[in-house]
Amino acid sequence: MSTSNNIADTIQNTINGKIKPLGSLGKIEQLAAQIATLQLTPSSENSLSILNPTLLVFAGDHGIAKHNISIAPRDVTTLMVSCFLSGQAAINSFIKSTNWQLKVVDCGIQTQLPTHNKLINARLGNVCGDISVEPALTETQFDEARLHSEKLLQQLDTNLIAFGEMGIGNTSPASAIFAKLFKLPVENVVGHGTGIDQQQFNNKHLLISKAVNRVDSDQPLEILRQLGSFEIATMTFTMLEASKHNKLILVDGFIVTSAAAIALAIKPSIRTNLVFAHKSNESAHGQMLEKLAVEPLLDLSLRLGEGTGAALCLGLIEAAVNFYNEMASFEDLGISL
């Protein structure tokens, strides 16, 4: 029997041996097993840990947003990043009194902000390309996104990274990626985002159709470069880099899931690292989760972004770790079933 099989057996036996009916803790048991698979080795103790849980909000502006397909103008991205840094946004209230450490990754917003201890500079420009007529990233920017992700991981002393995002117009590249990656009709994947009217929706549908039809390649990396964005590309490469170091990756909503979908297409084994936080109220997100054959931890009808759904899952992850480490077993109590 291989070493990996031995470890898997140890993990499952530990979970099954706890003082409870088999499978009675449902997703918490699955979560504990997933974390254990990442953290345990033949030479390690049979215990789990969460070290400095870090929530990264990746921000970027989008060329396609100039076509009035969002409820807010593009400069709201910079405004919201400022709010994250000053502690005034939804995500700040969600992580208050938790162990989350928040960092904002500027992948390329219109206005570069002053240095801040919570701000990571991973800028690729002021705004990505308008995907309806051109690639989101140049070849050079794409290579820089990869390098930024490597440097970013070197800065983080954590084994749990939650991914959130901010960028006016970013449901458009996420929809385009989904349609192209899974060869779906655009009308099946385009939603109303944060609440656009019918005229804006029709225009959004047209622009995304133009974007998808413009791209001939079915290669995941080229789909990402052509149809993604500064923050989606950087998230994808950061996920891939995090997986090399056995980190647990917590995926927020629709936009982050589009990055995860590309990462999975590039490296299927990254599935072991990915935990999907919640099912967004964005219409296509449920479809995307089904295509990826994953089940999220929560379904709260959220559609804000910012990592808000992911933030709410820390308690569940900590519960899974504590259950694995601290709950007594039948053997501990001298009970034989």
TrEMBL record:
Protein name stated in the entry: Nicotinate-nucleotide--dimethylbenzimidazole phosphoribosyltransferase
UniProt-listed Enzyme Commission number(s): 2.4.2.21
Q: Name one GO molecular function term.
A: nicotinate-nucleotide-dimethylbenzimidazole phosphoribosyltransferase activity
InterPro entries to which the protein is assigned, alphabetical: Nict_dMeBzImd_PRibTrfase (IPR003200), Nict_dMeBzImd_PRibTrfase_bact (IPR017846), Nict_dMeBzImd_PRibTrfase_N (IPR023195), Nict_dMeBzImd_PRibTrfase_sf (IPR036087)
Q: What family name appears in the similarity comment?
A: Belongs to the CobT family.
User: Which domain of life does the protein's organism represent?
Assistant: Bacteria
Gene3D superfamilies in alphabetical order? 1.10.1610.10, 3.40.50.10210
Alphabetically ordered keywords of this record: Cobalamin biosynthesis, Glycosyltransferase, Transferase
Reaction equations catalysed: 5,6-dimethylbenzimidazole + nicotinate beta-D-ribonucleotide = alpha-ribazole 5'-phosphate + nicotinate + H(+)
* Annotated pathway: Nucleoside biosynthesis; alpha-ribazole biosynthesis; alpha-ribazole from 5,6-dimethylbenzimidazole: step 1/2
Which CDD domains is this protein grouped with? DMB-PRT_CobT
Q: By its UniProt entry, which SUPFAM superfamilies does this protein fall under?
A: Nicotinate mononucleotide:5,6-dimethylbenzimidazole phosphoribosyltransferase (CobT)
- The enzyme's first-digit EC class, named in words, is transferase
